[in-house]
Structures are given as structure tokens and as C-alpha cells.
Amino acid sequence: MIDPLAEVITLLQPRAVFTRHISGAGRWGVRYSAFGHPSFCVALEGRCRLAIDGSPVLTLRAGDFVLLSTTPAFTMSSLAAPGTVRQFDPKVASTVTGEVRHGSHRGRPNVRLLGGWFAFDSADTSLLVSLLPPLVHLRDQERLSVLVGLVSEETSEARLGRDLILTRLVEVLLIEALRSAPTAEAPPGLLRGLADERLAPAIRQMHSEIALPRTVAQLARAAALSRSAFFDRFTRTVGVPPMQYLLAWRMAVAKGLLRRGDLPVHEVAERIGYGASTAFSTAFRRYVGVSPRDYLAASAKRDDTREV
Hints:
By secondary structure, the protein is α+β, with helices and mostly antiparallel strands. It has two domains: 178 residues, Regulatory protein AraC (Jelly Rolls); 118 residues, Arc Repressor Mutant, subunit A. It is 46% helix and 21% strand. Strands 1, 2, 3, 4, 5, 6, 7, 8, 9 and 10 form a ten-stranded mixed β-sheet that branches. Strand 3 and strand 4 form a beta hairpin. Helix 4 runs antiparallel to helix 5, helix 7 packs across helix 8 and helix 11 crosses helix 12. The longest helix has 19 residues.
């Protein structure tokens, strides 16, 4: 059976994984500036307060797991009110090795965390990330703690196959975190759509056999809803109208295929449901802003630059 969530994570292509031990002692408070990359952390012991911009304040305790899909600015502090809150730039700190200690450097810490971040190598990150919840907070998920521990081990040792193993581990970590998240509280997006027993069959149809022609009426039948009820429910739950979602997904897949560089444009067109490459080129240019051939050439140039 097609798994749309796994497809989205695979297409995001997580890479460049880093982890860092973080601790705090005494009365302390740190204001992290917006990072932009996805990040995660697991509380190893103790407690602290986490205030993420745009979200309710959380109290993290041992065993808690947090995933931020884009990592906006946030404040982390001791439970006791800090005297001052210092500024912290994660982009600068990410280049520093060793544990990060907040507050007093003496005595036993009142919290220990393992944090990590990674980049997505997808050609359509903004679209795919918009389908995921901005914040996932889970408690006492042993499987996630094990996965984070494995990620930490791999990042600390330069062993053969390290990058490939890290990529696979982060893919599994993301899927495990997202499928464990409470969907009733999730914002509009793919997670809520898949949790809706009426919409899930229609979403799976969109992802399976992507080249087949689809209509709102056909998808509504898969959802056992009237056309108008399906359109309204899908738009409200997923955040975009059904055909707009389908077009965006097809174009995301097309970008991924073009970036691989081993398929001609006409075959990419056929794989995502366009019988004629001219129709695909017109749709792609309208959606992406450049022709498929120009996009392919630009992708090849970026890959060559990355290898230098």
C-alpha cells in the first residue's frame, strides 16, 4: 500500500545531520534566534522550560522528544526564573564542537538534552515542509529515544557508510515522530488528512499511480462524499484544494526526477501523468518559473559545483 507520509519524507532527502549535547545549571535563560533548518531534541534528564515563538510554553522533562520542522526562534530556560536571558545564534554555535552549557559551569546540571539538526536536500522543500506540523512534542516514546541515540552515535564516529546510515536513520526518526504525533491537534496538512478516514483513501489515490488522470468527482467517490463536501473537507483539513495538492505533488516528483538527471523530459512528463511533453513543459514553467530543460541544466550545474 502506498504510504504518502513516507513518500514525502523520502522526497525531502534529509542530509548533513549534526547532534550536540546541551546542559543547563543554576538560573539560566537563552534566546535562540531562528534557525530555518529542521531540528529535534530529547531530554535525557532533569527539566527545563521551552517557549517556541507562536506555540504554547512547554515544560520538558526526561524522556520528552521535540521536533521542529523549520525551527523558529525560541527561548529555553531553567524552571526557576532566570535573571537575564542571553542571546544565542545556533548558526554560529553549530560550528563549535563539544557540549553546550548554559548558566553556571559549576555543579550538577538541572537539565541535560541531546539536540540535533539536519538539512533537506529536496528540490521542493517549502511545499513538502508545509505539509508537516511545525511542532511535534512527544512524551516517553522509547523508540524515538533509541533512534536519537543511534543518530548521536553515528555523528560522533567517522565509520564507513556513516552518511548513508544517518540519512536512513533520520528518515525513520521523522516518520516515527510524525506517526506518533496526536493528529487531532495537528494543524492543516498531510498528517491531518491521513488521519481523516474519509480523506485518507483519496490522498492515497493521489500518491499511487500518480500518472493516472484524476478529477475531484472521482476523488470524492473514493472518500464516499459528495463533490462539494469532499472539496470543502479536503481544503479545510489539508490546507489546500485537492487539485492544487495533486498538482503540487506531481511537480515535486517531477523536480526530483529531473534532478536525478537520468531521464529525458518526455519520460518525466509521462511518469507524472502528462501525455505530451509540451503540456508538461507549459505546466512546469507556469508552476516553477522555468522550463524543465532549464531546471535540469541548473540542477546539473548545482551538483557539479557541490562536487568541486
